[in-house]
Amino acid sequence: xxxxxxxxxxxxxxxxxxxxxxxxxxxxxxxxxxxxxxxxxxxxxxxxxxxxxxxxxxxxxxxxxxxxxxxxxxxxxxxxxxxxxxxxxxxxxxxxxxxxxxxxxxxxxxxxxxxxxxxxxxxxxxxxxxxxxxxxxxxxxxxxxxxxxxxxxxxxxxxxxxxxxxxxxxxxxxxxxxxxxxxxxxxxxxxxxxxxxxxxxxxxxxxxxxxxxxxxxxxxxxxxxxxxxxxxxxxxxxxxxxxxxxxxxxxxxxxxxxxxxxxxxxxxxxxxxxxxxxxxxxxxxxxxxxxxxxxxxxxxxxxxxxxxxxxxxxxxxxxxxxxxxxxxxxxxxxxxxxxxxxxxxxxxxxxxxxxxxxxxxxxxxx
Length: 366
Fold this sequence. Notes:
This protein is of the alpha/beta class. It has helices spanning about 55-60, 170-180, 255-270, 270-275, 295-305, 320-335; strands at about 5-10, 45-50, 65, 85-90, 95-100, 105, 115-120, 150-155, 160-165, 195-205, 205-215, 240-245, 280-285, 310-315. The protein has two domains: about 5-155, Distorted Sandwich (Spo0b-associated Gtp-binding Protein, Chain: A); about 160-335, P-loop containing nucleotide triphosphate hydrolases (Rossmann fold). Strands 10-11-9-12-13-14 form a six-stranded mixed β-sheet, with helices on both faces. The protein has a five-stranded mixed β-sheet with strand order 3-1-8-5-6. A three-stranded mixed β-sheet has the order 4-2-7, with no helix packed on it. It is rod-shaped.
């Protein structure tokens, strides 16, 4: 399935049904009185978070979502039926915002979380509604109110505890395949990863965390170079960044220190808050270094970088040094176990029409 993390859709709630003007006329009942019913409410548009959906591809092609209108009122005291609501199911981690104003309407962070996107219009009043002791034969009615309509922007940010970043071919996909059941494409050429991959890492009983692997970054990614800039948003919700560094690059002229500095500079340009997240250095492919030179090389790299955080030396392919790394990650991630939030959410969005019909009929109706 193609990974789609952005989409723009139009949603429209149903209009309310019009009220009815009707009078009861039966044999031997000369003054039956008004019996025109009210119109039905229009259907609303809701969004629900579903953990079984991983992409927004359904909304890339189906861009228009309309709820049905309410039925008009009828005689014999019959009120119109309300239009059915429609549910839009989206992946957990989706941000729904107004495409015109840019205001964020809702963030879907929990499975089953539900929010109202467009409210259906209320039904109009029939002449039965206007009956009184002084107005026994009213001929007034009101039309139904229009439903809300919006143009929405959908943006998916995956929910992961740990994010992997690094240059192409640094070994990110090999690492996530070694520590989880994820099976990303792995090859000996740059930009093998074309979309984010998620893997669940199980450290022990009831001890697990989610790792996100994004395409490799290159210098100029914040301005659009390469592929990684399209997916940096998926790291904004992570608790920890693992900076994978190729300790033994194929190109003898490549400098791992310069590569690390280039990626850090791109993170600061893209989002300073993302660059401020805890970032650990993980030197990969140490099995390709002579055993007597490994410690000296890594210490020299760290000294040049002036890195103050944790540093690890691993070989994802040979499964070396992974257990200490996973134990430290779990100890860090366990501090941020978030309490579940309320599942049903209703946001206060500006309405396109008044919430209640007027007490008196508009001019021109009667």
